[in-house]
């Protein structure tokens, strides 16, 4: 009975709100355990991480080891099939609503690149320029332009060009892809879509008609030029957990049209510099580190805006230590500092008050500057031809 458990998304006023367009925690912080219960997905446990390491013969990605990707649907089934020699493909996407990506936007792509390399599988990346036209105050031309700009940042993440297909909805939707959209659309009632996405009477019908567009790439037959005769190929979708409603709907419909349900592997939200209040805001450039930020910008933003769990005087800090639970530099290092031993050392010293906030921020500035510089160099090498 997946329909009832996977598609009911109603929640009371005081609950946290997590939809593809809005993320707001109860009192600011997202309760991921509650989210898992409400959405009906599973937590990723240590045995699943070990299984990935065994199958790929390499250490798990830092995002998997440290629980950044923390929930899944049917990921174990994907691994079962892979173990038997059956392949799968990856599907992820980006809604191009801003010129530059921030580090939070890069997380699904960094992780998807690891999955593509580790499992040696094909990947499709959907740029939902149509969605951004429907939801934001953007013209079609501007949405398409942003999709092209964002594609350069996505390519700069280093995907295998021979195994990756990036498409914009405005350019690609039609043919077999459109046939799947119509198949999906016919099997989801208006009441269901209101229950899943919370649409209201004032919403235009463009919004109501969009979900099948994001669902269709979950089925290999939407890409006949890539997967001809591979109708049973399974699909794995790495995404942030706010995209789950789309795929609950997709998984509900899949068996009705004779397809495999897509599997999901889902990440938590990357916190804003000011603290854990759900997602970062594009309207506040100081809430995030952008891939276009200079080394000076990064230093300034981390020093001025990164919320610290340190005490307000050195004496007090030496005595009580930092509150690592709320400390943003520690959270960012947990995402991006590769070395497990170094991270543990910093946490221990900082938590005990032997290390000061300034020192932790200094290390974070080095780590982030390196990532952004590397990304900028890679993006500069993305030619029009590519």
Automatic annotation (TrEMBL):
<dbReference type="GO" id="GO:0005524">
    <property type="term" value="F:ATP binding"/>
</dbReference>
<dbReference type="InterPro" id="IPR002305">
    <property type="entry name" value="aa-tRNA-synth_Ic"/>
</dbReference>
<keyword id="KW-0030">Aminoacyl-tRNA synthetase</keyword>
<keyword id="KW-0963">Cytoplasm</keyword>
<dbReference type="GO" id="GO:0006436">
    <property type="term" value="P:tryptophanyl-tRNA aminoacylation"/>
</dbReference>
<dbReference type="Pfam" id="PF00579">
    <property type="entry name" value="tRNA-synt_1b"/>
</dbReference>
<comment type="similarity">
    <text>Belongs to the class-I aminoacyl-tRNA synthetase family.</text>
</comment>
<keyword id="KW-0547">Nucleotide-binding</keyword>
<keyword id="KW-0067">ATP-binding</keyword>
<dbReference type="GO" id="GO:0048608">
    <property type="term" value="P:reproductive structure development"/>
</dbReference>
<dbReference type="InterPro" id="IPR002306">
    <property type="entry name" value="Trp-tRNA-ligase"/>
</dbReference>
<dbReference type="GO" id="GO:0004830">
    <property type="term" value="F:tryptophan-tRNA ligase activity"/>
</dbReference>
<dbReference type="InterPro" id="IPR001412">
    <property type="entry name" value="aa-tRNA-synth_I_CS"/>
</dbReference>
<protein>
    <recommendedName>
        <fullName>Tryptophan--tRNA ligase, cytoplasmic</fullName>
        <ecNumber>6.1.1.2</ecNumber>
    </recommendedName>
</protein>
<dbReference type="InterPro" id="IPR014729">
    <property type="entry name" value="Rossmann-like_a/b/a_fold"/>
</dbReference>
<keyword id="KW-0648">Protein biosynthesis</keyword>
<dbReference type="GO" id="GO:0005737">
    <property type="term" value="C:cytoplasm"/>
</dbReference>
<keyword id="KW-0436">Ligase</keyword>
<dbReference type="GO" id="GO:0009791">
    <property type="term" value="P:post-embryonic development"/>
</dbReference>
